[in-house]
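pipeline: protein-struct stage 2 | run 1193 | Cupin domain-containing protein
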Amino acid sequence: MQLYTFRSEAGNKISKYHSILASYSKVLRTEEPTNIGFIHIEKGGVVGYHQAPVPQLFIVVNGEGWVEGEDEQRVYLKSGDGVFWNKGEGHRSGSEKGLTALVLQSEELQAPS
């Protein structure tokens, strides 16, 4: 048995895109170009505006926060809510109270039905 932690303190700080108080904890990588990981956004944190390098599914698993797309309209999310971005789609995310999101990224990823 191997134990792992995916808590924010075990993650890597997100320093790109003018991000603030945010970290990323990768869960695994498959043979196909697929990444599954957690993004931890601390209280008052932001993952700055950027274009999705591949299709992405962002699912809030703890806490609450917001996302903005290219239209800059803020949408609030809480645990159990998710958002899908297509490759190249601009977006940013943040939280006033803190959140953890499970993130799936892959060239082959398609929006849930």
